[in-house]
Amino acid sequence: MRGRVVYSIEGSLEKKENKLLPKKIHSPLDIILLPENFDLSAITSSIAPEGCLARKAPKRGKMLPRVSQLSHM
Whole-model pTM above 0.70? Predict the structure, then answer.
């Protein structure tokens, strides 16, 4: 499955108006792969108003890219 790593969350995703929104955000546990044409604005405000979704992936220990960087890829 091709996609971009956008953010990591704990919990599941729910579909609302054809957009995936996180139900719970506590600590980064799961790396979510979204399609390349996914609308990042659908999730940005739900997670961090400033648009920075960078979190440490617990096992790999790498920082995920900021949304501002992903949206320009």
Answer: no
Query: Domain range holding 17?
Result: 4-70
Domain count within the chain: 1
For each of the chain's 73 residues, which pLDDT tens digit applies? 444 444 444 444 454 454 555 555 444 444 555 566 666 655 544 444 444 444 444 444 445 555 554 544 4
CA dihedral over 73, 41, 3, 56, signed as positive or negative: positive
**Burial (CB count within 10 angstroms: exposed 0-12, middle 13-18, buried 19+), residue 49:** exposed
Cα distances from 45 to residues 2, 54, 61, in angstroms, run 24, 14, 25
